[in-house]
Design a protein that fits this description.
Order of helices and strands of chain B: HHHHHHHHHH
Oligomer: heterodimer
Number of domains of chain B: 2
Number of strands of chain B: 0
Helix content of chain B: over 70%
Shape of chain B: flat
Number of helices of chain A: 9
Distance between the termini of chain B: 20 Å
Strand content of chain A: 15-25%
Distance between the termini of chain A: 43 Å
Order of helices and strands of chain A: EEEHEEHEHHHEHEHEEHH
Largest sheet of chain B: none
Strand content of chain B: under 5%
Shape of chain A: globular
Chain lengths: 248, 266
């Protein structure tokens, strides 16, 4: 990777689900250390963009380059990119039959060949960082939603990724648990992690984002720095969306 | 102590009560049968009866060994057949489909006869009757196991395998460490069913001469000629075996049910 390379670069990306054109000509550049927040109405394709970035969805047209590696359909290319990219899901997707600690160490042990002891140590470190080391030996089902999502973040961090993707990380949470997850994400942002976050939490966007992206009907309608984006959206669609979402 | 009481109340008592009802009804309808029922031939309280019972009971090991081996093989084969059934690749799915549809359409009794009498003729393979029985039972059951596994694996939310992939697991690692442990817990009742079914179906292997429970009962019947008494005992033998299996499966279910830390529903 050269010095001025982008962490993520999408050029002319298109995707169809059958006849449905979900992504239309997506162009996006993310520099290392950037925090990008993607927002937009549901069905606008924002989750699909994030899922394309680590190969959970394939794109039909265009180029995606992550950390200098081009993403193709080849298993090797996908595996290489997944090694650099962590992902946090709306539904947490913790492994319910394993303890919190085992959830965190499964990846490092199986795909990185770490010793169990070292993996446990690293897992405890990251559990400290998301402020729940005391839950290490519980099963996910015994934790609150907010705690589960923080475990999911720690699980991704245990793979020591260069880039973190968040797909609506607070949308499945009760209101009182949203802030504990956002706080962890803010701390991560302060440490300089490259992040792409799909969220409707505009408070988080104002505090953490370097770049805002507004999507609608599979297109990127508007991008900009947060200040300009929130004060002076240039498109009507974006203005309308922001009005709706900020009125709440 | 309290949990033992609960266990007896919810699992043992219903079965004992149901059996008692059956015995009473049976007693009343058979009271005036002609000729009279002669229970002494299978009664443990006289020497000949006890010897007869012991003779019948001597088939238990063969029945259990054969069912258990066949179950093990059919689970392994079923799992191997189930995996291509959930693949994206069409030819792989077709393989699974063809295997399941064809194998489950073959009736077990003809299959046993075919394996034992037919295979030596076409392939020169002569299995003894124990292994012929195991082979036929396992083959026949593997199609059902494959469908059970497929259903179980498909019932696990997609997010689980997606999460497994994002933490770097490959397909087989995610199957073994993430999907199957959850799927197996869900299909445990169905696997228990198959085991019970297997024990019962193993009776058919008596036709080729394996001395398991049913064969023993037939043999005894040809010498003492008390069909009703002997076959009643035979049914009770199967009943006891399957009740024990049922309890073991339920115990396993309870144990695994608590694994995700959530309370069991019911």
């Amino acid at each position: 990777m050269t010095d001025n390379a982008y962490a993520i670069e999408m050029t002319g990306v298109h995707k169809w689900f059958g006849d449905f054109h979900v992504l239309r000509d997506i162009n996006l550049q993310v520099k290392p250390g950037d925090r990008v927040v993607i927002c937009g109405p549901s069905g606008s394709g924002k989750s699909t963009v994030v899922r394309c970035l680590n190969g959970l969805e394939t794109h039909e047209k265009g180029l995606i380059t992550v950390d200098g590696h081009q993403l193709t359909k080849k298993r090797k290319s996908i595996a290489r990119i997944r090694a650099e990219v962590g992902m946090v899901f709306q539904q947490f997707n913790l492994f319910p039959h394993l303890t919190v600690l085992e959830n965190l160490t499964l990846g490092p042990i199986l795909s990185r060949g770490m010793k169990k002891h070292d993996a446990n140590e690293r897992a405890m470190e990251y559990l400290e960082r998301v402020h729940i080391p005391e839950q290490a030996h519980k099963k996910p089902g015994q934790l609150s939603g907010g705690q589960q999502q923080r475990v999911a973040i720690a699980r991704s961090l245990c793979m020591e990724p260069k880039i973190m993707l968040f797909d609506e990380p607070t949308s499945a949470l009760d209101p009182e648990m949203i802030s504990e997850v956002l706080d962890v994400m803010l701390e991560l942002a302060e440490e300089g992690m490259t992040m792409v976050v799909v969220t409707h939490e505009m408070g988080f966007a104002r505090k953490a984002a370097d770049m805002m992206v507004f999507m609608d009907e599979g297109e990127i309608v508007e991008t900009g720095n947060p200040q300009q984006f929130f004060e002076n959206p240039t498109t009507d669609r974006c203005r309308q969306f922001l009005n709706q979402i900020l009125q709440r | 102590m309290k949990s033992l009481f609960k266990y007896l109340l919810s699992y043992v008592v219903p079965i004992v009560v149901a059996l008692a009802i059956i015995v009473v009804v049976f007693y009343f309808i058979s009271r005036n049968s002609e000729p009279k029922l002669q229970w002494y031939v299978v009664s443990p309280f006289n020497d000949q009866g006890l010897a007869n019972l012991k003779f019948m009971w001597s088939g238990t090991l063969a029945t259990l060994q054969m069912s258990f081996l066949a179950l093990l093989i059919s689970i392994v084969v079923g799992l191997i057949i189930a995996i291509p059934g959930i693949a994206k690749n069409r030819p792989l799915r077709a393989t699974n489909y063809a295997y399941v549809e064809i194998v489950r359409s073959i009736p077990l009794l003809p299959l046993i006869l075919w394996v034992y009498y037919g295979m030596p003729q076409i392939a020169g393979v002569q299995l003894d009757y124990f292994w012929a029985g195991v082979f036929a039972l396992a083959l026949s059951d593997s199609a059902f196991e494959a469908e059970i596994f497929r259903a179980g694996i498909q019932s696990i939310p997609r997010g689980q395998s997606e999460a497994a992939r994002t933490v770097g697991l490959n397909y087989f690692q995610s199957m073994i460490y993430v999907i199957l442990p959850q799927a197996i817990r869900r299909i445990l009742p169905a696997l228990g069913n198959q085991f019970a079914y297997m024990v019962k179906m193993s009776a058919l292997v008596s036709v080729i001469g394996l001395q398991e429970l049913t064969r023993r009962a037939n043999e005894l019947n040809t010498t003492v000629y008390r069909a009703l008494e002997i076959y009643t005992v035979l049914i009770i033998e199967y009943l006891i075996i399957i009740l024990i299996i049922g309890q073991a499966v339920r115990w396993l279910e309870r144990k695994m049910g608590n694994e995700d830390g959530s309370a069991r529903r019911n």
